[in-house]
Specification:
Layout lengths: L7 E5 L4 H12 L3 E6 L2 H14 L3 E5 L5 H15 L4 E4 L14 H11 L1 H16 L4 E6 L12 H22 L5 E7 L27 H15 L5 H14 L3 E3 L5 H12 L13
Parallel strand pairs: 1-2, 1-4, 2-3, 4-5, 5-6, 6-7
Length: 284
Amino acid sequence: MKQIEGRVAVITGGASGLGLAMARRFAREGMKLVLADVQADALATAVAEFETAGTPVVGVRCDVSKQTDVDALRDATVKKFGAAHVLCNNAGVAPGGLAWESTLEDWEWCLGVNVHGVIHGLRSFVPLMLAQDDEAHIVNTASVAGLLSPPGMAIYCVSKHAVVTLTECLHHDLASKTDKVKASVLCPAYVPTGISDSERNRPTELQNAPKARTPDEIAREEALRHAVKSGRITADDVAAMVFEAVRDERFYILTHGKIKGAIETRMQDILLERAPTDTSRPKK
């Protein structure tokens, strides 16, 4: 995108973590903000921060798993600012566990937010962007879990692999229609955010029945929290990479260069038709 200042950025999951960091970076570049989040108190705090700083902003409580909520987000964007130039489909949750142990509620919650949330964003905003005369850009937040398949993360990996291929297809679909709307897929590794505590926003109707956690489940949860908190690249660092990708119209946003070796190993597994390598284990 050549013109950044004065344009409108819509960010789901915009009240915390990567979404809030993106909002802050876009605001520094002179953009107007539409922040969407399911957590009303965090959303109000984020909106107040930008209002105090003089950034034009509107907050919309939005459950991205519901098409009606995302349509309402689009309508609120148009009503407030008249257009949408950057869409960050960023809201996400991260349940873990062994593939056969996850409940149907786990699957519905994760796929509802991580996959259908992106689908809903595209269905609502792409027609709007195509109808505008201005340049526009879509950033879908996936993960390196969308490029790898480590153990204990079946649901999350399924959802993020879906986002990667959806965005790749989106790139081709957009190119067949216009040269003004571009797309990027964001694939971060561990970044210190609240993603490991996403259970706080699980809908009541998709809660699992209370049960004692097994030692393995406790160990996996603690390992995830430790890995997230230990991330050496910050949310602000990732937000800077996102901004640069939008500005430079770059498709893949790989935040952790060292992960490329594991990605290459997976590609070689496929090409050589060998069993998947567990790249999460330290090399002997």
